[in-house]
Amino acid sequence: AAFVPQELTTVRVQDPRVQNEGSWNSYVDYKIFLHTNSKAFTAKTSCVRRRYREFVWLRRQLQRNAGLVPVPELPGKSTFFVGSTDEFIEKRRQGLQQFLEKVVQNVVLLSDSRLHLFLQSQLSVPEIEACVQGQGSQTVTDAILHYAMSRCGWVQEQESRP
């Protein structure tokens, strides 16, 4: 039999950053780095930033489309967290990573184009919805390739923060 290379997808949730620090609408976002040789993905590597609220949206959408397939749990939205903020953010980061690791191993969930736009494009949640429903200016694949080509995912990495 011909040797078929094993499909491998590595997904990492890293580098939590507080945005709008000190203001009432501050939030933490996380870098999602994805590296894969799977044909399921348009881009072989990608890097985007997403916040917890967007993960919650993604999980709800996946659940809606997955039918009876159980969707992995997200880390809890604990408001009564005992301990330091850093500790809370780190726990959440681990939970989000475990969530995505399970999601990308599930064939049914992988067939949802919202997941791909979430992981591999710069589109906001409303833009993802529009794109999936065919109302955006680009197709799902175009949006992902456009982002991959622009390499803004990597530029983000190199820009030094003031």
Please explain how this structure is put together.
The chain has about 160 residues and is an alpha+beta fold. The protein has a single domain, classed as Phox-like domain (PX Domain), CATH 3.30.1520.10. Strands 1-2-3 form a 3-stranded antiparallel sheet. It starts with 8 loop residues before the first strand and ends with a helix. About 25% of the residues are buried.
Any key phrases for this structure?
single chain; about 160 residues; alpha+beta; PX Domain; 3-stranded antiparallel beta sheet; 7 helices; 3 strands; about 45% helix; about 15% strand; globular
Summarize the structure.
The protein has 162 residues and is an alpha+beta fold. The protein has helices at residues 52-66, 85-103, 107-110, 113-120, 125-132, 140-150, 152-158; strands at residues 9-19, 27-36, 45-51.
Topology at a glance:
Layout: E1 9-19, E2 27-36, E3 45-51, H1 52-66, H2 85-103, H3 107-110, H4 113-120, H5 125-132, H6 140-150, H7 152-158
Antiparallel strand pairs: 1-2, 2-3
Helix pairs in contact: 4-5, 4-6
